[in-house]
Structure formats: structure tokens, C-alpha cells
Amino acid sequence: xxxxxxxxxxxxxxxxxxxxxxxxxxxxxxxxxxxxxxxxxxxxxxxxxxxxxxxxxxxxxxxxxxxxxxxxxxxxxxxxxxxxxxxxxxxxxxxxxxxxxxxxxxxxxxxxxxxxxxxxxxxxxxxxxxxxxxxxxxxxxxxxxxxxxxxxxxxxxxxxxxxxxxxxxxxxxxxxxxxxxxxxxxxxxxxxxxxxxxxxxxxxxxxxxxxxxxxxxxxxxxxxxxxxxxxxxxxxxxxxxxxxxxxxxxxxxxxxxxxxxxxxxxxxxxxxxxxxxxxxxxxxxxxxxxxxxxxxxxxxxxxxxxxxxxxxxxxxxxxxxxxxxxxxxxxxxxxxxxxxxxxxxxxxxxxxxxxxxxxxxxxxxxxxxxxxxxxxxxxxxxxxxxxxxxxxxxxxxxxxxxxxxxxxxxxxxxxxxxxxxxxxxxxxxxxxxxxxxxxxxxxxxxxxxxxxxxxxxxxxxxxxxxxxxxxxxxxxxxxxxxxxxxxxxxxxxxxxx
Length: 497
Ligand code: SF4
Prior knowledge:
binds iron/sulfur cluster; alpha+beta; 13 strands; Nucleotidyltransferase, domain 5; five-stranded antiparallel sheet; 45% helix; six-stranded mixed sheet
């Protein structure tokens, strides 16, 4: 006999409900709760609270709410709070009961302002350290790259600082007032990263964002910079800057942060040609780090107009005579020393170049060709040669997939667009996203160092076996195609195979 569903009736009392029993054993939040210590935040933000007045929401609950917001990529804090009472797993994770009062969404923005970015940086660094303790970080080889993220501000908010019209805009007046207050707050702090970003244009809604043109479209953007460890792709250093910052300037800082966060020493850094600057090569040389980074100058010399004239590499240096020899066999002699640039200019004779048939492909300068030689040119040449080895090229190929994977995963948690306005808030977002990505690695490979080590060994063994399998199957195929024509021999070989 068919039964009929009773009309829904709200009960006043539910006896014997245990949320813990309703959450499956392998729920990711259950694992995160077991794995991550959220209570550290009590000590971290203790001095940010007063001793009197209303009691706040416990800091670990706020941190967990922030984590949920990013982990489930919830659009807004208001939506998170609206959804909270419908999600048993979230309630359980926060230690709430069915009838616990849901906090107002504004507690999150207030906590961010009260705690600042440092609390979130500490959380991120603790997760990195947990990965280190679990044997998931090798530390010797890191991959470095950056990615642009769209700011939470419209292009319509951009004003021209040099235009008189800006004084008519109410929002610009408001912005100037705010910037002035910030400058006063930061007095003596020597932090030059806040405030406006472009010298001429500025967004009135997010003055920290920079106008960056990519694929023909100019937008307000920030830039995330990351160092990823080679072993399990743990993000060991993360930084955010306005979108117009040259990523090459961030490499040394990322190496330092990696070493500090993991207490290891970098032996090899891998990055694309944007990082292949003189300054980066020499910094790596001084630190004894191999830079598997293509030479920026070399890449530029092959592209555009520069590709049409002879590159510096076509001129041979003779240390005995301290001269260069050009493709026409003429000498370029020392002309001037530039202390600031740390380089010496070598110049060909005007009379040699004027009559040279190669001049259109050599220089546009009517006075003749000049070559710049860095005062540490031998060290630079050594680093450039290192970047051209087979091992380095292999690493550079690996970098592309590895870093794309890291940024693509970040997008799942909303890393393509800034949730909040202001550089320090976008940094908070990046620390949360990088922490979540690292937590996912911890969940996947476990926290026990023995497990991590075992996983690594199995991987290596599997890779080894795979290689030998390929080797033998190659031999097998080779044998098959070289089968003798005679019927008897052929039959014997086929049977043996
Ligand atoms: S233009 Fe001058 S430097 Fe260049 S190849 Fe001719 S002689 Fe040499």
C-alpha cells in the first residue's frame, strides 16, 4: 500500500540531535578541524582587544568564518551569514549549535580592520611550517611567478590627477582626505607601498590598485607573486602588490620569504624571462643560488625592432686588450664609465662605422655602435650560461605547468578578482587562498612525515619503473619491426615474445 507524506510540521523541540553525528567522517571540514590549530589566533590578536565593554565573537570563530568565505568562494559576507544557518557542516565547523545566534556580517570587516594583515600572514606561515614538518617541502628548488587579479573598482572611478575637473568631483575630495589621513597614520613608517600607484591616474574607490593594460584592455589590477616548492607544490611565499609593479623586483624578496618560512636554503630558483634581469642574476650569484631563468636581454634582443640589429652577443670581448671586436672585425674601445649603472661603454670609431655596409643592421646611432659591459660581466656570463643548460631548460618547461596549476587552483577560491578594496585587504585574501591551497596539500598527503616520505618513495619508484617499462617496450617494438624474413626464425621469435 502506498503511503502519503505528512504535511511538514515545525517542531518546537528536537531532542537528542547531535550535529557531530550528522557530519560524515571524511568531510573535508572535519579533516581541517583535526589538522589546523585555530586557537593560536587568541595570542596573535590579544593586544587588539580592550579589557572592558562587550565580549567579541571568539577570534578562532572569526578566522574560521573567513576561511569558509574563501574556501567555498561565497560571494559576500552577507551571503555567508545568510547561508550559515542552512549548512550543518559549517555550523559544526564553527562549533555552533542549531539555535546559536548567527553573527552579523559586519563582524568580519571589523575584525579585519582590528587585526590587520599580520594575523592572516601568521596563519599562512603556520600552515607553511606544518607542511615543512610533514615532509612536504624540500626547500632546495623553488618556482617563482606572478598573476594579475582584477581590483574591486570600476574604470569609471579613475580620475586624472592633472585635470582640474577632479576638484569638482566629490569622490576625489573624499579620496584626498582619506589619503591624507593614511599618510598621517603611516608617518615614520617608511612604507612606500600604500597610497597612489600611477603618477597621473588614480582610482577614487581603490587608490592602491594600478591601471594595467593586458590584451588591449586597461583595468584596475593587483598582482600576486608566489614561490612554489618543487616537491609537493606547497606555496612557500606569497606577496601582493599593485598591478604595475615589475615582477622581477619581487624575486629576491620571495626567495628570502621562502627561506624564512621554511628554514631551508634555496639552491635553485626557476622563473620565466621577465625575471632574467642583471640585478636578479647577480643577487643569485652572491647567494650561491642557481638561476634557471632565461636571459631577459636575450629574449628582448630577438623580438621587435631590437631583433633587427646585431645583439651584443655578436661582439667578442678580449680581456687582454680590453676591447670588443665587431662582426666586421673592427675594434670597440673603452669610452666611458657609468658608476650608477655599474657599466663601461665601448665604442667603435665613427670613421669605421660610417663606411661599413653592415651599419643598417648594427646601429641607428650615426656616431657608431656602442656596447655596454657590466663591471661584473664575468659573473653575469656565468649565470647566463647556467640558464642555458639542458637541466635549466627542463626546469623552465616544468615551471610553466606548475605555476599555471598553482594560479588556476587559486581561481577556484576567487583569486581572479579582489574581494575587498585596499592593498592590505587583498593581501589578506591572498594569505587565505594560499593557506587553503596548502591545507589541501596537507589533506592529500597527510601530516605524518613518515607518510609523506613513503608517498615520495613510492612516486620515485613508480617513475623509475615507468621509465624502465618504456625502455623495454621500446626494445620490444624495435624487435618486432626488425623481425627476420625467414619463416622458421620469425615463428620462433614471435613465440618467444
Ligand atoms: S657598423 Fe661599426 S661596429 Fe657595426 S659592424 Fe660595422 S664597423 Fe662594426
